[in-house]
Fold each of these.
Amino acid sequence: QVQLVESGGGLVQAGGSLRLSCAASGFTVSGYSMGWFRQAPGKEREFVARINWGGGTTVYADSVKGRFTISRDNAKNTVYLQQNTLKPEDTAVYYCAAALGGTPEYKYWGQGTQVTVSS
């Protein structure tokens, strides 16, 4: 059974840090490109970051570039999102997702973890 389970969210003050984890089961992340997305109340889901399969190149939304880092531990079948210098506008539910190989379409999605940044 394929499953993505996010964890690590919580309440943090502006300027603080969090590390989100996404544990995969039922498939191996090394064969997939993994992404993080977020959805704030009343807004559409938006792309945050992606780490590509194979060489592991990364892509970030402009709004998080330089503050967030996506990484992958294939041995643990887990993907991470290190969030530094958090801002109130980063408040959202964060989701991880998996796309087979280098395809753009995300096939599997997690249930999300809440990140709340207070000012």
Amino acid sequence: QVQLVESGGGLVQAGGSLRLSCAASGSIFSINAMGWYRQAPGEQRELVANIISGSSTNYADSVKGRFTISRDNAKNTVYLQMNSLKPEDTAVYYCNAEVRTYSRSYSLYWGQGTQVTVSS
């Protein structure tokens, strides 16, 4: 089993910053990609950013230049630094990880989500 635990969400004023963390633990042989998604009320879950094992990154157009994704492979942890936050960034943020377990199979795991609220 693999668990992803997120932290760092909260309430912040527009223009402020937050840093999200997501730590993976359990039967992990290796992790390929890790990423952050978000879901606002009444909306579909959307990709915010992801990072591949070789440090290649992808960002949604709406967050480019404001958010930065990074990972610490030794800690199986992914981070999302969010700057210049806007009210439209308000959502539940979920991390995911494409994990290769010791059985050598790949599976996608999700965290439980952390609320980010940006006030105007």
